[in-house]
Amino acid sequence: PLGGACVAKEIAPSGEGGWLGAPWLLSGCVMLGFAWLYKAKVVDELPLLPKGRPIGEAPAERGLFSCLTSLDTCLYTTFCLPVVAAKNYRSAEVCGFWPACILMFIGTYSPFYCFTAALRTTLSMRVSDRLGYPSWCLQDFLISLFCFPCEVGRESLEVDEALGVRIACCCRVEKEAEGGCGGGGHGEGRGLLQPPAPTGHPFAGAGAGGVGGGQGTPLRFDSDLGLGNTSAGPKHYFPLVASAHAVANAHA
To answer: For a tag site, which of 12, 126, 150, 193 has the least CB within 10 Å?
Structure first.
């Protein structure tokens, strides 16, 4: 009773309901700032995955919890999952970086998570096709539904391996000496970011796989001794040189 009268309604705490979305908006602003930095330092430096990789010729698939073996990837997927997922989709050309990042953030940290898992299943199947891995819709959906961070981390490691890079903290792209889709074969040779062989190197035309590997322009051997040009390949280069020296010594 207040002054002889009863107050029928409850007095609600001041500001109740106004702060319910504040943590979500704050985390969104922080994520947006990091996404801008990550795109400038990492995503814009990465090439796109090559097309036409046949299923079955890719390296062995990584396990679901393989991201736990990489501290950098584990930290990225734990605190910045939408950013990592968007990087994977952009590298495979299945979705732009910013649309994917915004959709993943809104869907992952909201009541619409089930719809996000379905969307992520569709996108991840296209990424798997680009990497040369088989995919199964139901299995991918269940993994996305119950193991979303681990699945994104595993996918990120496979994309980075195909590109021949390692993404370290914080926002550093390190080129791998070996691995990637570039070079003489899948999982061998140079990665996509590794510089090509010098132009003047005698085996520069032998293909990215090195001597005897890959399919490139065959070596040509020109000589004043009448040997002409040959397309026999690099394995015949040294016998021709030896023959040239032998003829020159005989004439001397």
So the answer is: 12
Contacts within 8 Å (CB) and 24+ apart, 43-48: 43/86, 43/87, 43/90, 43/97, 45/173, 46/87, 46/91, 46/163, 46/165, 46/173, 46/193, 47/91, 47/163, 47/192, 47/193, 48/91, 48/92, 48/93
Phi, psi of 172, rounded to the nearest 5 degrees: -120, 135
Among 16-20, 57-61, 75-79, 172-176, the range with the most confident prediction by mean pLDDT is 75-79
Whether 35 shows a pLDDT value over 70: the answer reads yes
Mention every residue, 6+ apart, whose C-beta is less than 8 A from residue 192. 47, 50, 163, 164, 165, 180, 181, 182
Give φ, ψ of 189 to 5 degrees: 80, -160
Residues 6+ apart with CB under 8 A from 248: 225
Query: Would you state the structure tokens that stand for residue 251, as one six-digit string?
Result: 């004439």
Average pLDDT of every residue of the chain: 73
pLDDT of amino acid 92? 93
Decide if 61 contacts 143 (C-beta within 8 A).
no
List the Cα angle 114/115/118 in 5-degree steps: 90
**Positive or negative: CA dihedral 107, 96, 194, 191:** positive
Amino acid at 161: E
